[in-house]
Specification:
Structural class: alpha+beta
Number of helices: 2
Distance between the termini: 18 Å
Largest sheet: 6 strands, antiparallel
Strand content: 35-45%
Number of domains: 2
Shape: globular
Length: about 240
């Protein structure tokens, strides 16, 4: 084969493979829901927790009738206790102490709609007995957060870890979607669904990143190697001439 043609073919192949590395399908990833046109694995990691509740982040599937169903293997990060040391450190929870990472990846099936939910409880003593009380669930999809009969209250931000503890995050409405194919995306929750929360959106924070397909990464390596070989061939041809 003509060496110049070989170089052109290799370069074209690499360009094609680079195109494969980009998201190959449309997706929604934000306060309007989570969905992908092709089955996609996403890696989740715990970042921080600053709340007095004992909380767990779960994946829920939105069924065709609009109801929510907890997804199989959908528990992501879970607090084993409310915090490391109570209020002394702002109710902070750290991984390996108060928090465990149950599943670090979740596979979103093609064409289905999902949402993340922060499920919270707290304990208090009633009549001498310690009781666990349901503090409610807030969802990353705003329309599922119902307050006083009104739907659509934002309780998660995409692409932000929220504001400093106790300070209202007034820019929350600017962080309603993000692209998990561009790198880890921070997702911060406000854990109180009713109106008297501090709205700092830092009560529980995780990151999410789309996992590239192994074939794509292998193809990129192969294409890069081919381009390097073509360059060596061109250099040798120039030297011989």
């Amino acid at each position: 084969m003509n060496k110049l043609l070989a170089i052109s073919v290799t370069a074209a192949t690499l360009t094609s493979l680079l195109g494969m590395a980009k998201p190959a399908s449309a997706f929604t990833f934000g306060t309007d829901g989570i969905s992908f046109n092709t089955t996609q694995q996403v890696r989740f990691n715990f970042t921080s927790s600053n709340n007095a509740f004992q909380s767990t982040v779960k994946v829920f599937e939105v069924l065709s009738n609009g109801q929510l169903q907890e997804a199989t293997n959908g528990v992501l990060s879970e607090e084993l206790k409310a915090s490391d040391n109570g209020p002394r450190n702002g109710f902070q929870s750290t991984l390996g102490n108060a928090v465990q990472q149950v599943n670090d990846t979740f596979t979103f099936l093609a064409g289905r709609v999902y949402t993340l939910g922060l499920v919270s409880t707290f304990t208090r003593t009633e009549a001498g007995t310690l009781r666990t009380i349901d503090a409610g669930t807030v969802y990353s999809t705003s329309r599922f957060n119902i307050l006083n009969g009104l739907m659509g209250k934002q309780r998660a931000v995409f692409g932000s870890t929220g504001a400093p503890e106790g300070q209202a995050f007034n820019a929350a409405s600017s962080f309603q979607s993000a692209n998990p194919f561009n790198g880890p995306v921070a997702i911060g929750f406000e854990d109180i669904k009713w109106g008297n929360g501090d709205n700092d959106f830092n009560d529980f924070v995780v990151t999410a990143q789309a996992v590239p397909e192994p074939l794509t990464m292998g193809g990129l390596a192969l294409g890069a190697a081919g381009l390097a070989a073509a360059r060596r061939s061109r250099k040798r041809h120039t030297t011989e001439a």
